[in-house]
Design goal:
heterodimer, A: about 450 residues, alpha/beta, Rossmann fold, 2 domains, 11 strands, B: about 850 residues, Carbamate kinase, VC0802-like, 4 domains, 9-stranded parallel β-sheet, 8-stranded mixed β-sheet, 27 helices, globular
Amino acid sequence: MNALRDPRQAQAFRFLRCDYADGVAELAYAFDDGAELVERIRFPDAPALTAERHAAFAAALRLLHLIAGVSYYKAGVPATITVAGWTPDAASADLLDTLYLHGLAEFAYRNGLDLRGRVHFPRTATTDAPMPALELPRRVLVPIGGGKDSLVAVEALKAIGADATAVWIGTSPLIAACAARSGLPTLNIAREIAPGLFELNRRGAWNGHIPVTAINSAILVCAAILHGFDAIAFANERSASSATLEYDGQQVNHQWSKGWTFERALADHVRRHVAADLDYCSLLRPYSELAVTRAFARCGTAYFDAFSSCNRNFRILGPKPADRWCGQCPKCHFVFLALAPFLPKPRLLAIFGRNLLDDDTQAAGFDALLEYRDHKPFECVGEGAEARAAMTTLAARPEWREDALIARFRREILPQLDATRLALGPWLAPAGAHGVPPRLAAALAWIGEA
Amino acid sequence: MTNASALPAAAPWIVLKFGGTSVSTPQRWATIRALAASRRAEGARVLLVVSALSGVTDALKALCGLADVGARAAAAADIAARHRDLLRALGLDRLPALDAHLAELAALATAAEHDYAWQAAVQSMGELLSSTLGAAALSAQGLATAWLDARSCLLATPLPNQNERTRRLSASVECNADTALAARLAACGEVLITQGFIARDQAGRTVLLGRGGSDTSAAYFGALLAAARVEIWTDVAGMFSANPRQVPDARLLTRLDYEEAQEIATTGAKVLHPRSLSPLRDPRVPLLIKDTQRPELDGTVIGPEAASDAPSVKAISARKGITLIAMESVGMWQQVGFLADVFALFKQHGLSVDLIGSAETNVTVSLDPSENLLDSDAIAALAADLARVCRVKVIAPCAAVTLVGRGMRAMLHRLSTVLAEFGQVKVHLISQSSNNLNLTFVVDEATVDALLPRLHDLLLRAGALRAGDRALFGPSWQALYGAATAAPPPPWWREPAARARLLAIAAEATPRYVYHLPTLRERARALQALTAVDRWYYAIKANPHPALLAALAAEGFGLECVSPGELAAAERAAPQAARLFTPNFAPRADYAAALAADVPVTLDALHPLLHWGELFRDRELILRLDLGRGLGHHEKVRTGGAGSKFGLPVSDLDLFLRRAEALGARVTGLHAHLGSGILDPRHWAQVCGELASLADRIGTVAFLDVGGGLGVPAAEGEPALDLAALDAALLEVKRAYPHYALWMEPGRYLVAEAGVLLARVTQIKHKEGVAYLGADAGMNSLIRPALYDARHAIVNLTRPDDRADTLYQVVGPICESGDVLGSDRRLPAAAEGDVLLIADAGAYGASMASHYNLRKPAAETVLS
């Protein structure tokens, strides 16, 4: 076995093996004949696998192996992909080709690469036989991230009396604090990225954004089989499906793996290739960001001094608002703006500890949200039109209208906008397709209540 | 025996008040007995005012809110059990008076009527029960104590704006000295116990005095009896110069006048309810706050104004959650009735105005926080109404920072550094009342947690808060109640042998820097013992003396350099030590030279990549970021924020990375250094967390360099930086980001305390009451006092045992008014030729020295 080299010179990316024992899954990869890169996923207090779930778990683990490989593959994006010991069927290979292409689109854009026609998973000509139902217990795994979206999903499941468990991956005092506030049972899964990846990065590997929601989804599919859950309810909303920009004829969506296309593809795949009675869905799918923030303003009181959607202060927990909200990043800007129409102003300001809309230095950040003079930033934020609707609403509110950035919006930006497309109301109604199974439909409806 | 001799009729009264925790255990009742007996032994009559057992008032309130009669009966039974338990613990078995009160509580709990009168009756039971227990307990312990029903003495005065609820639950009593009452009580006994919190109305029914009620009761009794004093016994020694949770260095206030105390109680301190002072003001009854657990501590005495005191800021406080309403209108303010109409709108929306600032076209008012404000639409509705008559802006969240002290306007000239600090933040409103007791600044709330300790420190340094005046100020909260940190050992030069050695060195020539290598090694080893930090660099700008560099290199430190000169000095003194190049606005050639010598280079601007890109092609780079704020003990040592020239703003990060990528250069390290003299051990963990989250977006980063700035205490006895807490905070971040190595690069921390500056007294001058002590060392040797207002301890080494009774300005020989080494220093009376030691001078002393006035700066000597 050779030492680590610059993966950009590699000919092939190799899926070597995946194993599971005693609550730990090991996923091994390599570039050419280079050193093994081993990622480990630890499922705490995992029960012993029953015989009837063996086949389903093996399938889930293989799926996880292939999906989690995207973190490593991207370090070199070699021309060839090989899978040792088995061959995915055509449907699986299609899913993976699509995921790698679209999930890495922003990465490719940032690095000046073009992955079209480059990602080819090996495939059989046949289609695997469908997997049977396992009579999984009627329990929901609800992944939480410490932000408003997943907390709305949590509260919706609580409201309909569902048997739900809050799950998260990795250590985060912030998420743990929100999980504790939820009052739900919890499951905390640990993920250890292969240390060799950091070494590759130092040696000049390609680096950038990866479709982490796809990886987390695959981990939760394994967890659902292992611990016995028949549904995984994510909290990805409608705008996650829209592209952040178009580049050289290709749509680039920062949050592609949170989008409807991927949700539907993975849900179909899981039902056919893992367990016929395991549902994978997003409870927020038909809702806009604004509809979700309205729901959070209504049901999130218990989390106001604990939650954060900020990516910069993400893993550090502190008692002060400034510990949880950096106030500088697009996430802070958007959540502040989107909550503002639905909360009393003093309450909102107490959550953030400051008024981002009365701060001239934040003008460029809010301009980006409004898609004014700039394209959308590469972060998980709502559509520009939503931001404009929220801003227009505030511009008409006496307690907001004189704040620096709102006064500027009224003066400079509002006159240039199409006045017929600035209403808040249309954003609050559900629209579009979703994959929520009938037994959770009441939770879906609860989120949309005024 | 305490009651041995009867008191004369004219014996004064002392009122002692004890809160809930002070009456909840037998041990605490023993303390009350001892205190009451000692006041009796002073020749005073004693009136004890007690609160309910801790938690009982809350339990009674909760009982009032229970809808179910069974639940109320159960709650009453729980409360009864609690009192019977304490009765047994006090060694008493039956107490008919207690049984009677408990029966009354049981009856109230099941009563049908649930009006405010009923609530008052229920909530009054806590004090009736505790005082009944107390009378029995004290009498059983040999101190005959008579039980007094407070309702027989305190008659509530109806006020015009009261409603039924406030009349019953938040009543007030008008109190004038009542000699007949005093005589009646004197006839009851020499030691009496009564209830806080309760009074009667005109119809003889029970009413409550509202929040802080027991303190207020004690004050009412103090006024009625024209007492010698009122003593409030609580869990802290008194009022402090700031909230100790925000400012551990806050000083105990040993003497305040009523108005000052009222102001402090109103603007932040929770020790005493502000209502409890006004009854005592006219009869001039002093109030004393004492710590029940530590009665030996001085406490705070509040009394009439003492004309003799020089003015001093007494306290600084911050109230958060303030909302400002700014109203703009051209010319309408002068119209008759316009302001009255505007304020009527505030009243209509249930909002009460606190501070007011006005200009020709603007009136800005502040609203105190309340749940009503936070969670209702009151602000939105108010703004909508106001918008009809003026332009309105809601500014929040704000905090009101208030300086309190009599004669505030006479102190303005001393507040220049304090006011400069306000220049760093946005001030929305300034308010100063005509009683000249306070000065309030309304600022953004987000700034206040960091601002308050700095302001307190600046007030101390500026001498505006005259903490050295023992008549007004006591020890710091940290010293009284802080975690028992081992006092730092005395400095090395206190050792008699070291002193003799220093005097011998001074006899050769002064001024002279002397460096003590054992102290240097001690600091170095203490840092190396931290487990969180993977690599240490010494910032050699602090002191590039070759012996120090060699010693630190031997302790495993790399050397952080900022110029070609420093790189060369490091190479000469310690060729084996790793070097790091961290310049700022350096010319291109400097970078080229460092790269040619294979020294890792830190960039902190776009310019080098944009204009000298080829220099950095395929190189590994360290990037210094500006995280958008600065910290430190003086404006000139802060190195973050827009006002500082250091660091790449985070907003330029993407551009920097794209440019680096295009050149094949990789950012392997992120660096931030926010300032100097930082004593908060969590600071570096915060920087580390922020850098780590940015590093995750970059991908090529292997280490995070969180800089230095580790603070050194400004005076002997001050708490040192808690290295264990620093390590723990960093480890917590490392657990979240295990893939980054952690570097630090202290400078001053390692060398400051190892160095002293020796000088000899040249001349002494007295000028209009000011004594100047001339030294042969000046700002050309040690510029920190002039440049940073830095405080260095000064000692007369020739006279270690003489009383420090003379107040000196210690000055140097340089022709600058700023050539002052230390102001207002109390030292022994000195003579020409005495040797002065200026402490903690090992850092930024010799390295910043100059030949100004063509005077040679101090030479350097190393003690190994």
